[in-house]
């Protein structure tokens, strides 16, 4: 009979969960030793898991296995990433860390291009297209939607999108002595945009509270269920 | 730009690799090279993660060796890291014992952290007038209350109207604000990326 | 072994060597006997030509220097001989009238002569103390010259009234005679010799004055008249502050600098600075090995100075130490408010748990998005491959476990084959966790008949959006093996799958709006007939909503948070975890709303009243 | 090549051309030609405090890395770090940068090293100034809480990709009575910053940090280029909506 089948693992696991939960809730009183201890345990365990998952799912299948399975000229091409990866290990020794800089420059270049591509292809064009498509009357009629309501909603979204975009305008024309400020029409449009932004933040904020509340409820209910099962056990 | 020739090499690598990948986004014929370079970047990022963990553990190990303050915490961190690593490697990341550690340490701690966040969020919201007393704070708090009423069920109180108004607010007004923010953030991201590709910003030590 | 340092080039030489091995300067004094030097006497200045005169002066001054040096080194003549010739000299002076008639002064053709006379008078009138150097202190007085040699002011007075004698040549002859007398005399002690050396220097200086340019005189006259000039201007000598006076060393001048007290009066007889008084001596005294001067160990420090020094020392010490952190009181107003909020919210959560109050009667009406999701899943056939992307963090297990468990429970009832994947490193572990939780929701006979496997976990997709694109286009290449490293695509259910569109359904569970959007951008363009359902947290529901409202819909169903889970459970008639959480969720929301209204209102009033007081104070 | 690709290329060429044009030919005056954002004056004051009062400044770079859409805020964080390091690295307590992603960590260390090399003080460089505090979002927040709890930290600046866990870091900073300011690309993090931080940066304002804190002329040029492209985009959306409503596209 292994320890696991006896339920001892559940008992110890439950006690462990209860202890760390109480230690984290002690943060309400202020920074204390138990809270710091649990944070350090958490950082260590999380790092351990991530290293194993990344090793299983990235380093082994994409870096090591191609080199072991390649032969002939393929080995050269499959070995290049391994060579540059070994250069990166020079970061562990300050004196030779400069050897890793070319690979870091490559990562920064590719990352920047992915950021630009992601922004243009994934955000700017789709969001602009989605706002324009709100006025596609044919599609609205196909979905038996109320056309007027759809146009009203579309107009509100159009005004909101343009005004919240205008809110971020940074440049101001300096008038001598006058307070540097945007033109009046732009200032008014920005005020409207700020309203839309604040409404979006309010709804998201309420959603975050709901998610956090659910986590708090899950903790409280697992504690009460565990204590209840302990009491019921004796 | 400093006169160090090595810096020119770094800038050349960053610009060449970035331009190749960017062109791959718009010319499908070059998508293959783009995919290969993105794959390399993924591999190097994973290797960096491994090196990062090694330097994290080394930093805490040094704290212990140099008898610094809080060295007990560092010892606890190293022990928990090593234990998890051994359990996950020897029995597999989703084995019975790995999942035991995950279910009884990772989930309780993260859920509790998120739980104490709930209290802080309400406290911050209630104190917002102290921080910024203006019309937009009123709009913000009003929206938060409206969203909560939209989810609430109070026996004997008809809140359906709030629910519909909350759904309309969410699908029209919030969407407009979110789009404006995302377009602005998109412009900022493109500018940040372009500065790297024209060599104006050189975070790689250039 | 004793060594001699050459005074000119500073090199060491053997004691017995006469001249310096390096610069041939003489080290041993000339042994002059009167017979061998006849030409020194009787030469009158007029016969010298100017160029030759200069050379002679130089050579005389060198001889003179050596003579003086010798004298210094050899010391003054013995006391008895000195007093005989002096008395002879005194008698001669008494018979001659050295002081010029005023009338002669007035129309005196040479103003220098008058100056020389005045200098002579001023020099003779001063008492010995004035000759001492300005930085000598009183202590030097006891070592002053013996009484009988002092030329008192009254003697000078009598001789000064008679007219200048025209037998100048006789007087010159006498002074040269004295020079020779001086050179041939025996060794003399240093202390007693100062008067002979002094008078000798005055004579040679008087003789030299006639040729010495006026600017040299000013240098010579300068220091002697300084104190008088100061007293003439009515300036009282500077009062040294106590702390400065305390810091002055207590030793005598000689002890400190090792320079003889009378060095100021001596005139340089040799070298380029010949004729100038008060030159820093490059004398052998410095070269002679002497015991180092004993400097006083203790500084004269008064009580106040010691206190000030201690305070200064403490300030320096305290600079290095870490300032003790202001011990932040365990309880501040912020903390009290925070604890109060925590107690109220936790109390609101626990009340329904203990009162076992349920809210079935108040079942919320399922919105369109939830109904649509429920209908799609109800249409999933047995053994259909369903891709489930588990993208949420472990911290959101409380909310999303409830929502996703309800959906997975329904899929398990339908007998679908679940394929788990994640672009989040902790996703694969969360997938294993959610399968265990879903199995607890209800009794399942969920066993995949052919492969005897309920599900497969493809693990982690690296590379963010680009990685998702690769997986969507070619899942076999992107994730060839499952989380435990076994080949993933030999399973019969997985065989027909080549791209994401071959799945019967794709479900994305995420709390983060970025990951949700990444799946829409990268995967939904490839989903032609496979529906896409989102199980999201309440915090990202507003951001996914537009994709459901869009036409055509990019997302075919949304189950959001605890409420969405309860609504979904109601559509299929199965109670999930959410049913347990819902009463606490409801009262937690109510408590939060009340706290915001009460807390926010109180803060607003405080701010308004503070502004009003501020304005009122500003207005007075 | 599709129209979307063509539009994308034209968009990027226009944007890049404007940045180079403003940076090279019309560098423009100082940051005073930009509207006033209170958060940046607080950040500047925080940098001043770090130099004169020997307080430490903590820059949180988040866990978004530098690739993909969320990488943009990471790049902005690194530019901000260079500016802060230049100003505050010779103070008694040099700034510290925490990140939850390894590439950000090593790039922040490189940024510190090149600033110290620029100031001929490479011996003072300490590799622990750029810290990797955790590998998952919440463990990163846990590590950052331990840094923020240091009584010497007087200012916390957030510039990078965060999730809801940013609330935990702000809570710890509030309990430590230190200034909290900054922004993120993530909407959840922005909503929490708006409600809880003393000086939040909303949306695109974070991306103008380089111009307001004068990192280099290209940042001011970028902000001016963004302003022009913004109105071009708004005009395009408005025209597209009108044409779509009339069925012309």
Essential attributes:
heterotetramer; A: 234 residues; mainly alpha; 7 helices; extended; disordered N terminus; C: 620 residues; Rossmann fold; 2 domains; six-stranded parallel β-sheet; two-stranded antiparallel sheet; 8 strands; elongated
Summarize the structure.
The complex is a heterotetramer of chains A (234), B (206), C (620) and D (249). Chain A has helices at residues 8-25, 33-69, 73-88, 101-133, 137-142, 147-167, 184-233. With 234 residues, chain A is mainly alpha-helical.
Unreliable parts of chain A: 1-6
* Rg of chain A, alpha carbons: 29 Å
State the total count of DSSP E strands of chain B. Answer: 0
How much helix is in the residues of chain A? over 70%
The amount of helix of chain B comes to over 70%
The count of strands of chain A amounts to 0
Topology:
The complex is a heterotetramer of chains A (234), B (206), C (620) and D (249).
Chain A: H1 8-25, H2 33-69, H3 73-88, H4 101-133, H5 137-142, H6 147-167, H7 184-233
Chain B: H1 5-26, H2 31-65, H3 71-91, H4 96-126, H5 128-131, H6 135-151, H7 160-197
Chain C: E1 4-5, E2 12-13, H1 50-74, H2 79-95, H3 102-106, H4 111-125, H5 128-131, H6 153-160, H7 168-184, H8 190-211, H9 214-232, H10 242-247, H11 253-257, H12 284-287, H13 303-320, H14 333-355, H15 368-378, E3 385-390, H16 397-414, E4 417-422, H17 427-441, E5 455-460, H18 464-473, H19 475-478, E6 505-510, H20 513-522, E7 532-536, H21 541-549, E8 557-560, H22 561-572, H23 577-619
Parallel strand pairs in C: 3-4, 3-6, 4-5, 6-7, 7-8
Antiparallel strand pairs in C: 1-2
């Amino acid at each position: 009979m292994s320890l696991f089948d006896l339920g001892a693992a559940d008992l110890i696991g439950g006690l462990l969960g209860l202890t760390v939960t109480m230690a984290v809730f002690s943060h309400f009183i202020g920074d204390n030793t138990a809270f710091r201890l649990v944070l350090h345990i958490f950082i260590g365990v999380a790092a351990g898991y991530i290293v194993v998952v990344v090793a299983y799912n990235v380093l082994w299948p994409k870096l090591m296995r191609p080199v072991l399975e390649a032969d002939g000229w393929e080995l050269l091409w499959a070995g290049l990433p391994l060579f540059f990866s070994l250069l990166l290990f020079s970061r562990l020794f300050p004196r030779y860390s400069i050897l890793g800089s070319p690979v870091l420059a490559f990562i920064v270049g590719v990352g920047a291009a992915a950021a630009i591509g992601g922004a243009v292809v994934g955000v700017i064009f789709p969001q602009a297209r989605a706002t324009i498509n709100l006025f596609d009357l044919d599609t609205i009629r196909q979905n038996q939607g109320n056309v007027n309501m759809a146009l009203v909603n579309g107009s509100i979204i159009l005004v909101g999108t343009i005004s919240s975009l205008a809110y971020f305008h940074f440049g101001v024309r300096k008038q001598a002595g006058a307070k540097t400020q945007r033109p009046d029409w732009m200032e008014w449009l920005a005020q409207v945009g700020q309203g839309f932004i604040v409404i979006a933040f309010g709804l998201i904020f309420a959603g975050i509270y709901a998610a956090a509340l659910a986590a708090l409820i899950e903790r409280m209910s697992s504690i009460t269920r565990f204590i209840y099962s302990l009491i019921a056990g004796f | 730009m400093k006169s160090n020739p090595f810096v020119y090499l770094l800038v050349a690598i960053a610009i060449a690799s970035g331009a190749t990948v960017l062109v791959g986004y718009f010319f499908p014929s070059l998508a293959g090279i783009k995919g290969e370079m993105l794959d390399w970047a993924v591999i190097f990022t994973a290797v960096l993660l491994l090196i990062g963990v090694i330097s994290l553990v080394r930093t805490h190990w040094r704290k212990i060796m140099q008898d610094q303050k809080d060295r007990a915490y560092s010892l606890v961190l190293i022990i928990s890291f090593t234990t998890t690593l051994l359990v996950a490697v020897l029995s597999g990341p989703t084995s019975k014992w790995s999942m035991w550690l995950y279910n009884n340490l990772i989930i309780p701690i993260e859920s509790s952290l998120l739980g104490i966040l709930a209290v802080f969020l309400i406290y911050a919201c209630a104190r917002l007038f102290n921080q910024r007393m203006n019309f937009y704070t009123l709009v913000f708090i009003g929206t938060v209350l409206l969203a909560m009423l939209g989810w609430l069920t109070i026996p004997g109180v008809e809140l359906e109207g709030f629910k519909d108004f909350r759904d309309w607010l969410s699908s029209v007004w919030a969407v407009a604000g979110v789009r404006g923010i995302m377009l602005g953030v998109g412009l900022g991201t493109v500018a940040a990326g372009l500065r790297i590709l024209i060599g104006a910003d050189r975070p790689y030590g250039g | 072994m004793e060594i001699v340092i050459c005074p000119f080039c500073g090199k060491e030489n053997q004691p017995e060597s006469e001249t310096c091995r390096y610069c041939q300067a003489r080290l041993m004094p000339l042994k002059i006997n009167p017979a061998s030097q006849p030409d020194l006497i009787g030469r009158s200045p007029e016969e010298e030509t100017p160029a030759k005169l200069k050379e002679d002066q130089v050579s005389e001054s060198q001889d003179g220097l050596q003579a003086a040096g010798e004298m210094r080194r050899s010391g003054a003549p013995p006391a008895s001989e000195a007093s005989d010739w002096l008395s002879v000299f005194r008698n001669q002076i008494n018979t001659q009238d050295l002081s010029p008639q005023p009338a002669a002064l007035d129309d005196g053709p040479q103003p220098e002569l008058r100056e020389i006379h005045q200098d002579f008078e001023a020099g003779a009138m001063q008492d010995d103390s004035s000759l001492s150097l300005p930085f000598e202190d009183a202590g030097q007085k006891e070592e002053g010259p013996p009484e009988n040699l002092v030329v008192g002011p009254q003697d000078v007075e009598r001789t000064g009234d008679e007219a200048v004698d025209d037998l100048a040549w006789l007087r010159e002859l006498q002074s040269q005679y004295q020079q020779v007398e001086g050179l041939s005399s025996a060794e003399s002690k240093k202390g007693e010799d100062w008067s002979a050396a002094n008078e000798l220097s005055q004579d040679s200086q008087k003789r030299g004055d006639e040729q010495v340019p006026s600017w040299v005189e000013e240098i010579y006259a300068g220091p002697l008249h300084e104190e008088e000039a100061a007293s003439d201007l009515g300036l009282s000598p500077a009062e040294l502050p106590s702390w400065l006076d305390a810091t002055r060393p207590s030793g005598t001048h000689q002890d400190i600098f090792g320079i003889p007290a009378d060095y100021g009066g001596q005139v340089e007889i040799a070298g380029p600075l010949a004729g100038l008084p008060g030159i820093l001596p490059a004398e052998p005294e410095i070269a002679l090995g002497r015991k180092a001067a004993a400097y006083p160990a203790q500084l004269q420090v008064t009580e106040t100075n010691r206190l000030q020094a201690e305070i200064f020392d403490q300030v320096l010490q305290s600079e290095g130490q870490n300032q003790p952190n202001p011990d932040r009181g365990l309880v501040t107003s912020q903390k009290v408010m925070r604890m109060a909020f925590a107690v109220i919210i936790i109390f609101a959560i626990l009340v329904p748990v203990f009162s076992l109050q349920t809210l079935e009667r108040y079942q919320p009406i399922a919105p369109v998005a939830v109904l649509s999701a429920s209908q799609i899943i109800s249409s999933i056939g047995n053994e259909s491959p369903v891709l489930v992307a588990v993208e949420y963090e472990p911290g959101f297990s409380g909310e999303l476990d409830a929502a996703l468990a309800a959906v997975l429970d329904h899929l398990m009832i339908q007998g679908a084959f679940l394929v788990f994947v994640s672009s989040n490193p902790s996703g694969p572990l969360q997938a294993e966790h959610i399968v265990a939780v879903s199995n607890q929701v209800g009794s399942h006979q969920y066993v995949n008949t052919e492969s005897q496997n309920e599900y497969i976990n493809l693990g982690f997709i690296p590379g963010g959006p680009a990685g998702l694109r690769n997986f969507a286009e070619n899942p076999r290449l992107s994730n060839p093996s499952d989380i435990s490293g076994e080949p993933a695509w030999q399973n019969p259910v997985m065989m027909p799958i080549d791209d994401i569109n071959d799945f019967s359904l794709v479900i994305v569970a995420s709390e983060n709006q970025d990951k949700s959007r990444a799946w829409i951008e990268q995967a939904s363009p490839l989903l032609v007939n496979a529906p896409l359902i989102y199980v999201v947290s309440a915090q990202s529901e507003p951001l996914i909503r537009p994709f459901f409202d869009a036409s055509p819909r990019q997302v075919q169903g949304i189950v959001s948070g605890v409420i969405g889970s309860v609504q979904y459970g109601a559509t299929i008639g199965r109670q999930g975890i959410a049913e347990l959480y819902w009463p606490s969720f409801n009262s937690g929301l109510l408590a939060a709303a009340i706290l915001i209204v009460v807390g926010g209102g109180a803060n607003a009033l405080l701010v308004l009243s503070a502004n009003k007081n501020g304005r009122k104070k500003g207005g007075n | 090549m599709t129209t979307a690709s063509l539009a994308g290329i034209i968009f990027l060429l226009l944007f890049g051309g404007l940045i180079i044009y403003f940076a090279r030919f019309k560098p423009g005056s100082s940051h005073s030609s930009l509207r006033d954002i209170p958060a940046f004056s607080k950040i500047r004051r925080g940098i001043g405090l770090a130099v004169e009062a020997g307080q430490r400044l903590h820059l949180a770079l988040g866990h978004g890395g530098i690739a993909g859409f969320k990488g943009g805020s990471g790049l902005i964080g690194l530019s901000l770090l260079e500016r802060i390091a230049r100003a505050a690295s010779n103070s008694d307590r040099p700034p510290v940068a925490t990140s939850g992603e390894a590439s950000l960590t090593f790039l922040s260390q490189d940024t510190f090293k090149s600033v110290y090399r620029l100031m001929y003080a490479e011996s003072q460089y300490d590799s622990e100034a750029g810290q990797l505090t955790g590998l998952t979002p919440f463990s990163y927040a846990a590590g950052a809480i331990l840094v923020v709890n240091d009584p010497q930290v007087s200012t916390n600046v957030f510039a990078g990709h965060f999730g809801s866990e940013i609330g935990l870091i702000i809570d710890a900073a509030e309990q430590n009575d230190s200034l909290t300011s900054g922004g993120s690309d993530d909407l959840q993090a922005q909503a929490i910053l708006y409600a809880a931080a003393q000086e939040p940066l909303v949306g695109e304002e974070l991306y103008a940090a380089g111009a307001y804190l004068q990192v280099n002329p290209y940042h001011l040029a970028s902000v001016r280029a963004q302003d022009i492209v913004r109105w071009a985009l708004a005009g395009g959306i408005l025209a597209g909506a009108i044409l779509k409503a009339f069925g012309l596209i």
